[in-house]
Q: What sequence folds into this?
C-alpha cells in the first residue's frame, strides 16, 4: 500500500471534518494519546479518531478514504480490552461507531432486536426493562459499555445458551470497502422477510465474511435474544482440590450434560486464582509483590475460600423443565464437589444482610468471621459477589467482575465508569481452541500452567466451553504496563504461548494484534483465499489492512 503524503492526509481530515463537524473528528495529540491507549503493549497512535452518526456518513468516509488512500480501522465501542484496539500503522484513522446507538426494532414474539453498533449491553438491557419486553440479552463479564455488535463481530462469548454471540447475529447491513451498502439475508430490497429470523438466506452464506474480518463495516444487525424464562436458577459449583482423574471426569460429565441440553454449552470452569482476582487486589494482601507464590495462594484460599476450581451457570425454562434439570445436575455433579443453588429470593436476602455482614467483617472479629463463613459456606467477599454474578446470568451487565483486570495494579481499582485501557492496565488474553475431551483439555491446561509458572506470571485461566464440542482454555497475562521490563517479559511470554499453540495445531478463538501473523501459519491456503477475497472487495487496502494478516 502506498502511504499518503502529509498534504493528502490533511485534506482527508478536512473533508471528513466538513462531513461530521469538528466535534466528531479528533486530531489533538493529547486526546489521541489517551483514546488510543491499549491493554496490549505496542499500541500505535492513529492520525485521527472519527465518530460518524449514520450509515450514510460511514459510507461517505469510506469513499473519501479510497480517494485519499487512508486506512480506516472500525470499532463499535472501542473497548476490546485484552485483545487490542490499535491499528497497525500511524497513517490510519480509527472509526468509532458509538454515536450510531439506535435500537431500530425489537420483536418480542420472534425474540430478536435490530441494533446499531453503538448499542451497549447496558443500553439494550435497560431498553428491554424500560419497555417491559420479556426478552433477555446474553451479556459478558466484560464492559457493560461494550458494544453488543462489536463483541459479536469479534466472536465474543457470554454465559447463557446464547453465549456464542456471532452465531446469534442475523441480518447485517454492511458498508463495503468501496462505500457500497449491502444487506445480507432475506430480501435485499425494502421487505425484510426473514432477514432477522433465518441466518443463511439463500445461496452462499455471506454474513460469515464479516466476523473477525476486514471486509466491511457493519452498521446494523439483527441479534437473537433469549425469551424471559418462566423459571431461572443460578447454581454455583466448587471443587476444593484438583485431582487429575476427578478433574478429567468432571470435564467429560459437563460435556455430556451440554450435549444433552442439561446445562448451557457455555460453562466457564474457573480456577481459584481467577475467582480471587474479582475479590481483591494483590497490593492489599500480605503477599509477594511481584508474583504470588504457592504459599501465598494457599493463604489467600484460606482467607477467601475460593477452592481449586468452580463455576456458575444458569438454568432457564419452564418450571417443570428446570426442576427436572436440577435433579439431573445434583445427581451428576455432586460426586465432584459442592453445589449451591441461588434464586431471586436468596439474592434478596444476601443484599439485605450485606451491610451487617460487612460491618461484622470490618470488626475483624475472627470468631464472628468464622461463624459467618460456616453459616454462609463461603467467605463474605464471595457472598458479596453473588448478586452481581446472578445478574450476569440473567443478562444484566455489571462492572463488578470487570474490576478483576486491576488485580496487579498498585492503586485502588475504580468502582464505576471503569475504563481499563485509559487506566493503562496491562492485560493480554490468550485462548486456543481445543476439542472438548477431558483428557486433552487437562493436558493442554497443565502444559500452559507450567509455562506460566516458569515465567512467573500468575495462572489466570478459565476452562471456557464455547460449544458443547469445543473448549477454550482461556488464559490472561496480567502485567504492570508502567514497568518496561515487565512489559517486555509479558510480550516475550505471549510469543511463547502463541508458538506452543501453533506447535500443537490449535488456533485461538479470538486474536490480538500481536497474534495476527500466526493465524494462518498452519494453513497458508486459507490465507491465500482470504487475501483474494480482500483484493476483490478492497483493492485499495482501506478497511483495517493487516488485520488477521489479511491485506
Ligand atoms: C476484565 C475483562 C473481562 C472481559 N470479559 C469478556 C467476556 O466475558 N466476554 C467477551 O467476549 N469479552 C470480554 N472482554 C473483552 C472485551 O472487553 C469485550 O469483548 C468487549 O465487549 C469488546 O469491546 P467492544 O464491544 O467495544 O468491541 P469493539 O472494540 O468495538 O470491536 C471488537 C472488534 O470487532 C471489530 N468491529 C467492531 N465493530 C465493528 C463493525 N461495526 N464493523 C466491523 N468490525 C467491527 C473491531 O475492529 C474489533 O476488532 C473482557 C475484557 C476485560 C478487560
A:
Amino acid at each position: 500500500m502506498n502511504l499518503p503524503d502529509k498534504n493528502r492526509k490533511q485534506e482527508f481530515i478536512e473533508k471528513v471534518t466538513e462531513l461530521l463537524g469538528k466535534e466528531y473528528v479528533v486530531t489533538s495529540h493529547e486526546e489521541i494519546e489517551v483514546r488510543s491507549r491499549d491493554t496490549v503493549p505496542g499500541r500505535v497512535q492513529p492520525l485521527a479518531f472519527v465518530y460518524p452518526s449514520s450509515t450514510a456518513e460511514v459510507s461517505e468516509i469510506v469513499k473519501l478514504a479510497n480517494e485519499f488512500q487512508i486506512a480506516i480501522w472500525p470499532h463499535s465501542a472501542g473497548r476490546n480490552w485484552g485483545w487490542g484496539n490499535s491499528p497497525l500503522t500511524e497513517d490510519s484513522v480509527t472509526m468509532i461507531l458509538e454515536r450510531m446507538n439506535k435500537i431500530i426494532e425489537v420483536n418480542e414474539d420472534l425474540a430478536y432486536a435490530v441494533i446499531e453498533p453503538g448499542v451497549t449491553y447496558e443500553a439494550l438491557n435497560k431498553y428491554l426493562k424500560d419497555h417491559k419486553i420479556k426478552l433477555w440479552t446474553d451479556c459478558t463479564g466484560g464492559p457493560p459499555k461494550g458494544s453488543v455488535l462489536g463483541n459479536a463481530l469479534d466472536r465474543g462469548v457470554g454465559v447463557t445458551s446464547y453465549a456464542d454471540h456471532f452465531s446469534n447475529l442475523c441480518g447485517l447491513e454492511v458498508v463495503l470497502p468501496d462505500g457500497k451498502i449491502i444487506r445480507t439475508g432475506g430480501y435485499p430490497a425494502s421487505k425484510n422477510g426473514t432477514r432477522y429470523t433465518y441466518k443463511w438466506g439463500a445461496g452462499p452464506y455471506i454474513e460469515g465474511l464479516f466476523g473477525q474480518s476486514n471486509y466491511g463495516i457493519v452498521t446494523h444487525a439483527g441479534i437473537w435474544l433469549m425469551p424471559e424464562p418462566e423459571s431461572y436458577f443460578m447454581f454455583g459449583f466448587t471443587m476444593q482440590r484438583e485431582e487429575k482423574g476427578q478433574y478429567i471426569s468432571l470435564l467429560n460429565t459437563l460435556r455430556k450434560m451440554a450435549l444433552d441440553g442439561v446445562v448451557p454449552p457455555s460453562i466457564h470452569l474457573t480456577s481459584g486464582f481467577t475467582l480471587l482476582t474479582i475479590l481483591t487486589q494483590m497490593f492489599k494482601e500480605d503477599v509477594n509483590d511481584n508474583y504470588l507464590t504457592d504459599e501465598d495462594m494457599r493463604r489467600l484460599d484460606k482467607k477467601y475460600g475460593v477452592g481449586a476450581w468452580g463455576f456458575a451457570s444458569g438454568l432457564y425454562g419452564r418450571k417443570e423443565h428446570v426442576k427436572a434439570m436440577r435433579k439431573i445436575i445434583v445427581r451428576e455433579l455432586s460426586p465432584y464437589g459442592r453445589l449451591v443453588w441461588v434464586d431471586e429470593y436468596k439474592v434478596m436476602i444476601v443484599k439485605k444482610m450485606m451491610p451487617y455482614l460487612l460491618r461484622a467483617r470490618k470488626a475483624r472479629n475472627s470468631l464472628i468471621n468464622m461463624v459467618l463463613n460456616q453459616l454462609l459456606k463461603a467467605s463474605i467477599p464471595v457472598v458479596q459477589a453473588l448478586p452481581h454474578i446472578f445478574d450476569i446470568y440473567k443478562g444484566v451487565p455489571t462492572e463488578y467482575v470487570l474490576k478483576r483486570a486491576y488485580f496487579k495494579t498498585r492503586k485502588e481499582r475504580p468502582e464505576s465508569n471503569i475504563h481499563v485501557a485509559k487506566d493503562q492496565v496491562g492485560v493480554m488474553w490468550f485462548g486456543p481452541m481445543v476439542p472438548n475431551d477431558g483428557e486433552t483439555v487437562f493436558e493442554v491446561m497443565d502444559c500452559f500452567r507450567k509455562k506460566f509458572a516458569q515465567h512467573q506470571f500468575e495462572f489466570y485461566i478459565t476452562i471456557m466451553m464455547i460449544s458443547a464440542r469445543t473448549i477454550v482454555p482461556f488464559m490472561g497475562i496480567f502485567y504492570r504496563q508502567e514497568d518496561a521490563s515487565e512489559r517486555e517479559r509479558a510480550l516475550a511470554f505471549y510469543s511463547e504461548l502463541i508458538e506452543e499453540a501453533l506447535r500443537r495445531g490449535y488456533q485461538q478463538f479470538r486474536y490480538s494484534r500481536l497474534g495476527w501473523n500466526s493465524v494462518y501459519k498452519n494453513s497458508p491456503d486459507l490465507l491465500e483465499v482470504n487475501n483474494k477475497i480482500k483484493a476483490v472487495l478492497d483493492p485499495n487496502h482501506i478497511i483495517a489492512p493487516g488485520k488477521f494478516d489479511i491485506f
